């Protein structure tokens, strides 16, 4: 299996090369050159397997330049040992006969990004060896919260790599900040930036674009790389849990083999739901993929009208990991649905860059709507949904998952479709504890409390244990004290590396 760029102007490369490069040289995203098909018989064979065995089976179809033994080592390193707090890795919990929850938050940072960021570094070190790369890889990350910690956990102590994470000093929650500044590992660096997330992100982008500086780094044996969600090495591990959830539902007798189900996915950069699309393309029986947005509903508008317009007000919501106006991975979907027409992709992506808007043709829109449905939830609806799910099912969901459940209700009201639906649950309710505690205990329960006290209060109120990744966080030693001005990000990289 090889990989080609969605923009059509880069040479075809191996999986190892695609993972090492991250983004294609022509600015496009790497996609597999061939279609992978999983038969019903193979699907049936997945049912008795462990999560890790299912993962190895799916991955080997895409990463054909990795041996099965290497893939199984990657899987063990990513999901084995004590890294996840359940041996099932991504368990499915059925709430009613037609509603299940796929819990993607049992990893070290309590959010779904662990599913991919525990795996990417394992792929990357092997990809470095396979492609004859001799430089030390330096991962630079600008984070608004979740990605930074998940990348630190994934790359900590990975040989041949270092990681430097920049976060906006005033732009992340107390819990997120403590998760990052207490990170252990001899190759990890964490820097607080005196600015907002945009300042942080543009500072990091500038470092990547500074040809003189990257040249100097190269002479010293360093190569910069990113861990962002457009890397194929982050997307492919996400395909696995769609198959695994299906296999679990067959195993529990909830559905019959071959029966179609829906998934509803709280969406930001379109990475998670795109993995569901690839699973469907491979033959997983999926009827609808329901794309759930918050007030930043650029994807809802796109799926309803075919117009993608990022020129709109940006809202800070209670589901911050979905506060995104450019969903990068949508490019891969459009490439596949147009029958791989790079000229169309180039036109639309140029329009997006230059004017912030593009319109797809009617045929493409029909294709999108034959698979996807979308709506959004306001913050008020999100908090009401957390409360409702708690009261009805004695089950606790975070704000992102609640957005998905609310949108599913809208889908069912609009379409009357009662197909069994799996909700992708992307964060532990303890990760966004002040919203969750406020929703189920009432706003007065928050008065005068910091996030660490609320973790305990939420646990006491619900009887749910605080996840290991968040327990005792405020008592862990702070290991990272670096601070940089918003225009000193390149200097910070220099100080760390040179
Ligand atoms: C990143 C994230 C999302 C959005 O996922 P995408 O792949 O970017 O669409 C949703 N929920 C949580 C908790 C996340 O961290």
Layout of helices and strands:
Blueprint: E1 2-5, E2 13-14, H1 15-21, E3 30-32, H2 40-46, H3 51-62, H4 68-79, E4 92-96, E5 99-103, H5 113-117, H6 120-130, E6 136-142, H7 146-155, E7 161-168, H8 174-181, E8 188-194, H9 197-209, H10 211-219, E9 222-225, H11 232-251, E10 261-266, H12 271-281, E11 286-293, H13 298-305, E12 307-309, H14 330-337, H15 342-355, E13 357-359, H16 362-371, E14 372-376, H17 379-393, H18 399-415, E15 421-425, H19 433-441, H20 451-462, E16 482-485, H21 489-497
Parallel strand pairs: 5-15, 6-7, 6-9, 7-8, 8-16, 10-11, 10-15, 11-14
Antiparallel strand pairs: 1-2, 1-3, 4-5, 12-13
The structure holds pyridoxal-5'-phosphate (PLP).
In brief:
The protein is an alpha/beta fold and 498 residues long. Helix content is 46%, strand content 16%.
* Strand portion: 15-25%
Give the structural class: alpha/beta
Q: Could you tell me the number of beta strands?
A: 16
- Mind summarizing the main beta sheet? 6 strands, mixed
Shape summary? globular
Strand order, sheet with most strands: 4-5-15-10-11-14
Question: In oligomeric terms, what are we looking at?
Answer: single chain
Low-confidence stretches: none
Overall helicity: 40-55%
Look up the CATH topology of the domain at 89-113 and 234-430: Rossmann fold
Alpha plus pi helix count? 21
Small molecules bound in the structure, each named once: pyridoxal-5'-phosphate
InterPro entries: Ser/Thr_deHydtase_PyrdxlP-BS (IPR000634), Thr_synth_N (IPR029144), Thr_synth_N_sf (IPR037158), Thr_synthase-like (IPR004450), TrpB-like_PALP (IPR001926), TrpB-like_PALP_sf (IPR036052)
Pathway: Amino-acid biosynthesis; L-threonine biosynthesis; L-threonine from L-aspartate: step 5/5
Protein name: Threonine synthase
Keywords: Amino-acid biosynthesis, Lyase, Pyridoxal phosphate, Threonine biosynthesis
């Amino acid at each position: 299996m090889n990989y080609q760029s969605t923009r059509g102007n880069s040479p075809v490369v191996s999986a190892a090369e695609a993972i090492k490069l991250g983004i294609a040289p022509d600015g496009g995203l790497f996609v597999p050159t061939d279609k992978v098909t999983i038969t019903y018989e193979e699907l049936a064979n997945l049912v008795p397997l462990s999560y890790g065995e299912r993962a190895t089976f799916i991955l080997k179809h895409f990463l054909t330049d990795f041996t099965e033994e290497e893939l199984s080592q990657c899987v063990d390193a990513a999901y084995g040992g004590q890294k996840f707090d359940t041996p099932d890795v991504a368990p499915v919990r059925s709430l009613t006969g037609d509603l299940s929850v796929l819990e993607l938050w049992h990893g070290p940072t309590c959010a779904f990004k662990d599913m991919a960021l525990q795996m990417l570094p394992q792929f990357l070190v092997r990809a470095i060896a396979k492609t004859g790369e001799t430089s030390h890889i330096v991962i630079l990350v600008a984070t608004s919260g979740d990605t930074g910690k998940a990348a630190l956990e994934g790359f900590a102590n990975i040989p041949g790599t270092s990681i430097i994470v920049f976060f906006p000093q005033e732009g992340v929650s107390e819990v997120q900040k403590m998760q990052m500044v207490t990170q252990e590992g001899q190759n990890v660096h964490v820097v607080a930036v005196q600015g907002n997330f945009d300042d942080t992100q543009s500072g990091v982008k500038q470092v990547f674009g500074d040809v003189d500086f990257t040249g100097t780094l190269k002479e010293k044996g360093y190569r910069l790389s990113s861990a962002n969600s457009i890397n194929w090495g982050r997307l492919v591990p996400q395909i696995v849990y769609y198959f695994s959830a299906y296999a679990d539902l067959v195993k529990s007798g909830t559905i019959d083999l071959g029966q179609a189900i829906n998934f509803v996915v709280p969406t930001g950069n379109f990475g998670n739901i795109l993995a569901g699309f690839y699973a469907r393309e491979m033959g997983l029986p999926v009827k609808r993929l329901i794309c759930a947005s918050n007030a930043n509903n650029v994807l809802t508008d796109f799926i309803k009208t075919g117009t993608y317009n990022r020129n709109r007000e940006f809202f800070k919501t209670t589901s911050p990991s979905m506060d995104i106006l450019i969903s990068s991975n949508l490019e891969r979907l459009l490439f596949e649905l147009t029958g791989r027409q790079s000229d169309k992709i180039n036109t639309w992506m140029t329009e997006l860059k230059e004017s912030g808007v593009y319109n797809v043709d009617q045929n493409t829109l029909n294709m999108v709507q034959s698979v996807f449905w979308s709506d959004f939830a306001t913050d008020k609806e999100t908090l009401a949904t957390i409360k409702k799910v708690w009261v009805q099912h004695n089950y606790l969901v975070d704000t992102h998952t609640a957005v998905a459940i609310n949108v599913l209700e809208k889908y069912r009201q609009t379409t009357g479709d009662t197909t069994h639906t799996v909700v992708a649950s992307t964060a532990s309710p303890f990760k966004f504890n002040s919203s969750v505690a406020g929703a189920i205990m009432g706003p007065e329960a928050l008065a005068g409390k910091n996030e660490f006290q609320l973790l305990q209060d939420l646990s006491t109120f619900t009887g749910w244990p605080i996840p290991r990744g968040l327990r005792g966080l405020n008592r862990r030693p702070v290991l990272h004290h670096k601070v940089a001005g918003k225009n000193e990000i390149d200097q910070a990289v220099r100080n760390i590396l040179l």
